[in-house]
Every structure is written in structure tokens, then in C-alpha cells.
Amino acid sequence: MAMISEAAVRESRRRMLGDALAIATYALPVGLVYGLAALQAHFTLLDAISSSVVVFAGGSQFAAVGLVKDAAPWLAIVGVTALVNARHLLYSAALAPYTAGRPLKERAFMAHFLTDETFALSVAHFRRLAKFDAHGYWVAAMFIFIPWNIGTALGYLAGGAVDTHKLGLDVAFPAAMAGLSIGMVSGRRDLAAAVGAVAVAVPVGLFGGTSVGLVAGAVFGPFFGLAVPASAGDKSGDRETPEPSAAAGLP
Amino acid sequence: MSLGLIPLAFLMWAVTYPARALPILAPGIERLPSWAVSYLRLAGPAALAALAAVNGLLTADSPPHLAGGLAPLAVGLCVLVVWRTRLLLAGVGAAVVLVAVARSMGVG
């Protein structure tokens, strides 16, 4: 492997820091929306914060809020969480060649902080350097972990002081989910999966209840995507391309 | 003392952490068959679209009904804004402002 100069490492870190600042800028307000949604679903402050610290996966946290609000069984919530977060397998697999020489304990700890954003920032940094850089990984991870958790707490605490219905904040949750889904669409397969999921979730939800509809849509939606040929923009087979949701401010 | 939803958070972690850790800790598992990779990649947009649909298009009654009024309109506006700008915050902001303005005018 070619030697990388200290100057090149510093330049790559500086570039990553700029990208990380942009992500932190919208991770905080999206965390606010999550904290507010958790409040509306009757979470306690401790519930909301523990979720953001322990789970640290925005899409599934929003999903859990919706399911708790609908009184769905925990088994369904855990199943949806597993499905929504299964994409992390791809990120972890793409990082594995860079982390292979690191101690097992360090890799095990790093894994908890592997989100869309951490992956997007760190893999770009490692590729520039052609090697692993622990400093870079932890900067990437903390620039999403800290604002996400601060946002969660502030959203929860501020939410009780405002009339959320009057201010229209009750639509923030479904809007955020729809927007996040669209943010993940990079080609016709993603679009077919999302539209297929809606086409399954709504009728099943009407007859079987909202949580059954949600699980049915989440499980069967991807098959609609697999049924259509990939377009040029599709990233569905690309192991090293993070979800575009990384640009949406959710861990 | 009630633990509330904290045990649920740990259960969610228990199904999330393996996806994050397994390939890093056990190199070789990254060689999933291509159909599995594609399915996993599509699960994200599908699950979140289903979530938006049941929360934005159905009522919270039991059994649920198709929702009318401002919520589906606001969700549609958010989709349009995010589609054009790729900014989630802009989309959610537009949806919230639409509903707030409509309600201040006595609509919805």
C-alpha cells in the first residue's frame, strides 16, 4: 500500500469535517421532530433519549414511534426495526476490508455507531486515504450521534410547551416518513418498492389494522422493486453507495 | 419503577446491532447473494413508504378508514418538495406550514 503523507491525511480530514458539519446542521432539527413525535406517542423523556442512544437509527425510531402510537405488539416493532435496519449489513460489509486489522473490541464498539451518515463520511475518507483512519471514523460518528441526541431531548422538552395541532406539527411524522422514503429513491427499482409498499399497506391496513398493513407493505414492497429492471440510477446492487437518506439528516 | 419503553429500545438494538457488526466482525459474510443485497437495499424505501401510508392515509380508528382533509395533502406536498430538493427538512417544513396556515384560516 502506498504511503500517505500527513498533509494528505489532514486534507482528507478537513474535507470530511466540512461534510460532517453539513450533516450535523440538519441532524439536529430532524432529531427535534423525532423528540416531538415521541412526545406525541406518549414516550417518557427517558424512553425517547434511551431510544436515540441505544438504537441510534432514525428510520426505525420513527417507525417505532408510529407503531407504539398504534398500540402494535412489540414483536411487530422489533420485526420492522430489523427490516428497516438490515441495510446496515451492506455498510458494514463495505467497511470490513478497511477495519480488518483493528482489534476486535474496537470494531465491536465502532459498529454501534454505523449509520447512513457515518458510513457515507467514513468510507469516502478511507477511500481517499486508501486505509483506515480511526480519528476520521469517530469524527463522522459523533457529528451525527451528538446532534441527533440533543435534538431528541430538545424536541421532547419543547414539544410540551406548544399546541402541536394548531401549529401543524402532528403531520410532521407522516411527512418525514414519506420524505425520507422519497429521499432514498435513486432509480425505478426503489420507486417501485416504495409505491408497491403503499399499494400493499393501505388495503391490508384497512382490513387488518395499521400495524399489519405496515408490516405487509415493508415485507412485500421490495418484491415490487425486484420485479422491475434496474435503471441507470439504481443503487440497489451497489455495496459501497450509502442510502441517499444520509443527506436527509437521519442516522 | 416502570421501565416504560426502555426494554423495547434494547430489543430494537438487539436486531440492529448484528446488521452493523457481523460483516465487520466476521469478514466473509459480506459476500451475500446479489438478490439478498438488492432486497435489503429496497427494504428501506419500502418500509418507510408503508409507514408514511398507514400514518398519513389511514385514520387511527379501529378499524381504520381512509383519511381525508389536510394530512394526505401535506404528506403529498412533502413528497413533492423532497423529490425536487432532496432536503427532508424543507419538505417537512412545507407540510407543517401548509397545515398551520390552513388551520389558522379555519380549514381542517
Could you describe the 3D structure shown?
The complex is a heterodimer of chains A (about 250) and B (about 110). Chain A has about 250 residues and is mainly α. Chain A has a domain at about 5-170. In chain A, about 70% of the residues lie in helices and about 0% in strands. The longest helix of chain A has about 35 residues, at about 5-40. Mean pLDDT of chain A is about 85; it is low at about 235-250. Chain B is mainly alpha-helical and about 110 residues long. Chain B has one domain (about 5-105). In chain B, about 70% of the residues lie in helices and about 0% in strands. Chain B has helices at about 5-25, 35-55, 70-85, 90-105.
Radius of gyration of chain B: 20 Å
Q: Given the structure, what is the number of helices of chain A?
A: 11
Radius of gyration of chain A, CA atoms, in whole angstroms: 19 Å
**Average pLDDT level of chain B:** 84
What oligomeric state do these chains adopt? heterodimer
DSSP summary: helix tally of chain B: 4
Biggest interface, which chains?
A-B, 116 and 80 residues
- Residue share in helices of chain A? over 70%
What is the CA–CA distance across the termini of chain A?
A: 32 Å
Mean pLDDT of chain A, rounded to whole units? 84
Q: Shape of chain A, please?
A: globular
Q: Give a count of the beta strands of chain B, DSSP E runs of length 2 or more.
A: 0
Number of domains of chain B: 1
Terminal CA distance of chain B: 41 Å
Element-by-element helix/strand order of chain B: HHHH
